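PT: before anyone asks, these are the final sequences, not the draft ones from last week. 1368 residues across everything. Please model them as a single complex and drop the result in this thread when it's through.
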Amino acid sequence: MQKKLLLIALSLPGLALAAEGMWTLDNLPMNRLQAEYGFKPGPEWIKNTMLSSVKLPGCSGSFVSKDGLVMTNHHCASGCIEQLSTAKQNYVSNGFLARKHSEEQVCPAMELNRLEDITDVTEDVRKATAGLEGTSFKQAQNAIEATLTAACVGDDKEKTRCDVVDLYHGGRYHLYKYHRYADTRLVWAPEKAIAFFGGDPDNFNFPRYDLDIAMLRVYENGKPADIKHYFPFSKNGPQEGEMSFVTGHPGSTQRQLTMAQLISLRDIGLVDSLQHTAELRGVVTQYRKTSPEAARTADQALFGIENRYKAGTGRLQTLLDPEFMARQQAEETALRQFVNSRPELKEKIGGAWDAIARAQDSYRQLFRVTNMTEGAEAFNSNYFRLARMLVRAAEEKAKANAERLPEFIDTRLPAVQQNLFSKAPIYPEFEKLKLTHSLTKMREDLGVDHAFVKQVLGKLSPEQLTDKLIDRTRLADVEYRKTLWNGGKEAIALSDDPFIKLALAVEAESRTYRKRMEQEVQAIVQKNSELIAQARFAQSGTSVYPDATATLRLSYGEVKGWDQGEHKIRPFTNFAGAFERDTGAYPFALPASWQAAKGKLNLQQPYNFVTTNDIIGGNSGSPLINRNGEIIGLAFDGNIHSLGGAFWYDGRSNRTVAVHSGGILEAMDKIYNARELLKELTGK
Amino acid sequence: MQKKLLLIALSLPGLALAAEGMWTLDNLPMNRLQAEYGFKPGPEWIKNTMLSSVKLPGCSGSFVSKDGLVMTNHHCASGCIEQLSTAKQNYVSNGFLARKHSEEQVCPAMELNRLEDITDVTEDVRKATAGLEGTSFKQAQNAIEATLTAACVGDDKEKTRCDVVDLYHGGRYHLYKYHRYADTRLVWAPEKAIAFFGGDPDNFNFPRYDLDIAMLRVYENGKPADIKHYFPFSKNGPQEGEMSFVTGHPGSTQRQLTMAQLISLRDIGLVDSLQHTAELRGVVTQYRKTSPEAARTADQALFGIENRYKAGTGRLQTLLDPEFMARQQAEETALRQFVNSRPELKEKIGGAWDAIARAQDSYRQLFRVTNMTEGAEAFNSNYFRLARMLVRAAEEKAKANAERLPEFIDTRLPAVQQNLFSKAPIYPEFEKLKLTHSLTKMREDLGVDHAFVKQVLGKLSPEQLTDKLIDRTRLADVEYRKTLWNGGKEAIALSDDPFIKLALAVEAESRTYRKRMEQEVQAIVQKNSELIAQARFAQSGTSVYPDATATLRLSYGEVKGWDQGEHKIRPFTNFAGAFERDTGAYPFALPASWQAAKGKLNLQQPYNFVTTNDIIGGNSGSPLINRNGEIIGLAFDGNIHSLGGAFWYDGRSNRTVAVHSGGILEAMDKIYNARELLKELTGK
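LR: through. Structure below.
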């Protein structure tokens, strides 16, 4: 039986620090908000916030007009911007502005989702998996998820998406129902030089001077979507000390992991994977210097790599910090003592930590070969990604819904198709670069004599195999992909495309490792994490927030600088600062449009600012709103101290970095002369 | 007063495991040798071993004929081989063979040293530094070192080198006197394709199929040096289970560090530095693909980078291994309990571990900026290296010997000059690549707003500054370097060379950080490590061997495979295996000379093999000798399990990888037709 949740906040005494927490909208920390800021959001405020928030792939956004206008970061829309560009018409470097709807261009592969409803399905999931272990447990979980989401979506697959969301590591399962927007168009993007001014050196730093914004518009039935809930713009923006909310989709935090999991994460998820990322960064950095076209086609990927690299390095620092680890150990010890002091809990939950630790040993044995095979790290190419998707879809679609791999259940197929039939360009030279490198790393990491390496390479070098695959594949052709999709297993089996043949050849081995990882690691971790979550609820109720899960959360805080050793970092920068930082050389070169407009600009206009809001990757593009639900800024980054936020929130220095709403309007007006957009946002 | 040591071995009961240990030749584990192998080397055996062993920069070698012929690894001589090559005459890819003395070519920058004498100077050093702290301690240590080495070298600077060697981390100080060979010539090198067959994928692995050998010859007064002690060749080589010795110069181990030091090493020396190395690897890998000339000029550096990367990754695995760390912790706890149980030790030594731990905190604060400035990581270019050497030499030569930086005391100047006036080519394009990258990393790591970054870059980008420096420098001209050297401080001050000006500009800041690091970290660690060494001696005498210090050591062991999970790894490979592994594609392509000779070769001839000898980086090029002092092999690598050997010796799987002496002779004879060399080695 499913229990419908009302959007009513629970009000239990909390453990979290001031401003800490990424709260689900059905469980806001009302008492704390009241006590700290004298503010208690009402049901309408909460509902409007939820319905004005949008999820983008890996990012966040918000509705800012009744005509479907969506604000997000430039770096969240840059995939689309790059895909719409060509060597001759480069919107990445030159920017883009549609002055009327007919000039807005369709993003080749961008689906937006808006959360509409939350249902508690914890009991359904518990019942379905009760008493099961390993693969059976995993399969039962997949099956109930397929059933629940199918019922939730009903007949409206095109416009509805439903996900079962695992909160508190299995402490609660909620069913999230989204409105799907599959037709998204580009409206405005400034030049990358100003969207990402300061580039990698300034990334995760502050003071900052970035106009990291893009405007998109969602369409339905070929017309701008009719939107009832959206955030109006505040021209004045916030004052120092003013309360701020961030509503968005933080991707993932690890604040509730066990010590054994944290150590795995340190050694494998960070130390090991950062070395790989660093090397790939070197390869792509050097490649992009070989020609302007190489730079154009590689820069989007490079941004992702550098962002991941820097974020990972910051997170690693926290896991190498003996003080932090001691703090986590103390928390874990306290919780275990709490459990052991209650016989009924001890009996049921006492062994959970050791079980998870043992699963980590299996993980250490399996991770490398599983990443290479099932994780496809050996085959870093869009062609392989498409080939595997086609091969697996053919196999899975032939099965009953509840028996499929979860990424191919009926309710997910529209998203799979959107991805598979995207017209986003693929650049063969860049694909060769990535694939050669990843095949080389496969050989290095697994060893020359590993059976999988021998199967893949035979007597070929990574370069030779790459050429053989990429020179002959037809997967760049969307029509060919449609033929294979429609042709099902038979078409796949008959295809002579070298990537399809490769994906087929490595399928058995890949699935074997996936299954072993599920059985020997994931199922054990999931089951025992549920137990630990129950212990936490017994200890402190739901007055704690769940780890981030790429679902909608609200964080609260205020506009505030911080102390950096002896330096006091002020919370605001202004336009004058951007001109002072300009060196004329990448990545510190202001674009020509800014140079030209300098005389017209109010140089004292606040431009970027920081707040104490608790956010993490995935929150990029989130609006900052004030108590009135008005947009006062656009989150685009965290400072360097926010990176440890994956593991804990340190209010002394963890800061959200945002573009000021007044700065956005000033730039639209004086630099970009975007009159139509301004009118849509402000009515003027 | 100095106490002359005789080459007599101490015979105390030992703590070390069988085959464990890199023993100084004046303290061999005689009882253990006798007990385990029934072999007790006599004074003549030991003396002959010492005088037949040679130290190369970062490597080892041995005399193998009375005419100054030196055997080492190809990868130890590859600097010379590459420096003697040109785009047209590529000895790296084609190999090199001098059929008579007149064809032997002078290596532009290679000095060889042979250890001749060891003197205990512990008391002299102790007296000089007694009661001193911080910088005074460091300066007194430098001064006594300058005095002792000056007296040791006497008037014979050209042919004598003396070093004070710090053993047992300050437990003992010995004065090592070397014969210098400054005129080294290339005699033979096979093609790199076979010297490094399997390339990076096979590096630190086994089975192997490498002919990683080069022959050099030292000259004196323009003629081949007259050598009394050398190792004869064994054509048969060793049998499985046969005893083997390795004599060579292992660079550095960390088996006697405190837990606090191991954790620093993990976080800074490995995790942090490996990320940098991985990225540089990616940059250089991609650069070398841009043209054959780029590959030729970058490959020597790339080998070093990849070797360091893989070795570091292996070492890191050990420091991330909870079992290993627990073992070290137990050892440290036991030693501390031993100290605390004896009031006189507790009073004097009890605080040493905590003092070292506090120094590590300072190290964490200082390492990054010190590496960038004093460590010159910001300026990764041979031009800067030369510029700094010239700038510092001018400053230091003007001071009294005992007051100089230790690398510029009188007895070191010949080596400085050899380095400074080397005719080794410098490749401007490759220098640009490295310098641009390192300046970029400086900006990233210290931050755009760091005072040092602003001083170095001003408003220039790393690319712009690099071009400005490299396009205008004259430091490629050896004559210009000589002019600056001879002109001293005045010439330096007047030079308009951009690298000289840069080196001068960053000198004050660099020296400041050097001094802080010495005062706040090194002096404290040195003083307290001496105390801990005294505790160890009190606990177990000198029946333990000191950590490796790039000085002559002997290790013993035997020819033996190992168990890899369920696989049994056999100790020998043969020529047939090399042909089986050949794919025709780099790095698994046998050279044409091998293909041509296949019919003539004895394919069953043992080629590479493994032993249990305890070695580490720096041992490359070491001979393996049998009880009769005959060469049975040439060490060129360790297996993957040997990498943890930096921290402990695990006899179950730690293996030395060597070329078989019979394999060397067979290849010389049948593939390279090197009759003259064969005759010199075997008399036939």
